[in-house]
Design brief:
Blueprint (H helix, E strand, L loop, with lengths): L10 H24 L7 E4 L2 E6 L4 E6 L2 E5 L3 H4 L3 E2 L1 H9 L3 E5 L7 H14 L3 E5 L22 E6 L4 E4 L5 E6 L2 H14 L14
Parallel strand pairs: 5-9, 6-7, 6-8, 8-10
Antiparallel strand pairs: 1-2, 2-3, 3-4, 9-10
Helix pairs in contact: 4-5
Length: about 210
Amino acid sequence: MRPRKSKEPSKVGAYVITGLIIFLMVASAASVMLYRQPAANEFEYNGHIYTIDTKQGFYLTEIGKQTLRFTASPSSAFGVKTEPAAIALIKAGSALAVTFDPDDTDQLIYTDFARYELGSILPNVISATIKSSTTYLLPVVGCANATVGMPVLEFRAAPIPGVRIGENPSCVIIEGNQTSLLLAKDALLYRYYGLLPDETLGNETA
């Protein structure tokens, strides 16, 4: 008597089909990850992904575990003249005194916001004013007090935004007029974190 043939499908064939399905699923997922189109509120600049916070108007990106936010896009900050020595000075100091003119009422809302942003991102920031004030109970610090260990960053009103070394080689000047002052602040932070192309550092003008 001949043995009865099993009606069960070949196990080898089942394994091949299962393996093929798994391969196709993995390949499909990998292609989605590699070729995913950026979301409508995302873009890439100089190798970094930015998200646009449409509600508050910020540009967000991550460096390690730190989330950075900017009021200006990196392409806008790209054109702000920034002296490399100013960035190097801030990085080398153990602390940074950020100072401003408390009597310049046209700029105060912008310098206050810029000081807050710098203090929330950069390490060891000390707020100060260049002259005594009854409104701002802060220490009086100016460029004359700047040292290599504690450089001073002073906000000044100017028609063209920029970041440069002041009269004292340990003093950094951030210049701008209201919203362009915030643009100069962003240019400093973009440069500080290396988010803009290095070869243009200090060579562009607004």
